[in-house]
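Re: the request from the purification team.
They wanted to know what the chain is likely to look like in 3D before they choose a buffer screen. I agreed to run a prediction and write the result into the notebook, where they can find it.
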Amino acid sequence: MDRRAFMMTGAWLSSAAGGAWPWLAQAAARRDTLAVIDSTLAGGPAFADYVVRMKLPVFETGDDIGMLWYTTLAPRLRQTSAQSPASLIGFTRASDYFVLKELATRMGQMVVPGGEQRAAPIAQVGHVTFVLTPRFIR
């Protein structure tokens, strides 16, 4: 890894994860966690490397996050057992996070652990690192 990549990865990890980091690490350590990544964003490839090392299923956001939710994520989240429900982690555009959060929380089983912690309103940030966990796992 060259020095620039090292510095960018370090800056990304410390700033992008921010307040979500403890929940992100906890969710990523579980084998039934799904990951959603927008690899076109700066920091996306570093997050992808992280989840690949954790051996998590990774899904690219693509052009339609709603389609990804309905065709792939929601069915996989429903397939998990009640004893071991899946979490969802990701690094996406703020707009994709907003849609995913609305769909997942309306499903009634997912929550944002610890509430949302960010320095600026979601409309002002370009990307979001997030964790959505089952309602009863905290």
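For the purification team: The beta strands are 34-37, 58-60, 88-93, 110-111, 127-134.
Please add any questions underneath this entry.
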